[in-house]
Give the backbone structure.
Amino acid sequence: MRIFAAAAALSLLGALAACSTEEGMRAVDDSAAGDATPDASGEAPRPVPDGEVRTAGLVTVLDNGSGPQMCLGAVAESYPPQCGGPELVDFDFGDVGAEESGGTTWGQYALTGTFDGEAFTVTDAIPAALYDTMQEPAAGGLEPACDDAETTDPQNATPEDMDATLAAASALPGYATAWLSKGTISVAVTEDPEGAEAELRRTWGGLLCVTTVEKTDADLNTVNQELQAALGDQLLTSGSTRPDSLDAQVVFDDGSIQEWADATWGDGLVVVTSALEPAA
């Protein structure tokens, strides 16, 4: 059973993911099966920016003796940290914010420069201590599946009732996923939402939303595995943070990777974001 949780709710997020380090998100279950998605077809594009780009916020820069690297993906929270990424050219840690331990130097920076697909040539580096984090939008939590959820029996809404209801949800025909947000249990199924709600009301009298989606958890697992195989080292992370879709962050996308994903799996099933964005 995969349960999503909003930022202010219980930390029950169970996301599919592909990351470049040992501290990345939970790996996809290779045994998961799904027959509702096509195989990835056509070679994935590998776009290279033709002008200056910048990081989408702060990134870790690390040099363990082999030269500075820009860590665009996950960073292992050891001391010193561990991560990897494109080689940096013309980079200087400077006098603000860098740390050093065990032969490794690292720090957080907002970088601007040019990227040739392998190396990033730095034209500007702003250390975290001088970076205005207010310019970064705050991440929002997952909302309930509906805005008109009702309570039918307040006496039947205990933590034990919640556990029983989530267990019952996972056994529903066409079960896709469930999440908790703002005191509401939301359940997504691929079929018979009315029957699903009637079944869940046997154990839950609190706020409840039942919605329909096209893809099950197994379907998204299949897509995620195909995505990893097709994008290779372009893919930084991939995971499910909301029902019926996958989020994929790549090193750089000029729109062509998103177009390819839409053509391969259908519009909007995979939402691509780029770690590097045009500087102007």
In short: The helical segments are 159-170, 193-200, 217-231, 256-265. The two ends are 44 Å apart (CA to CA). Residues 59 and 108 are 5 Å apart (CA to CA). The longest strand covers residues 104-115.
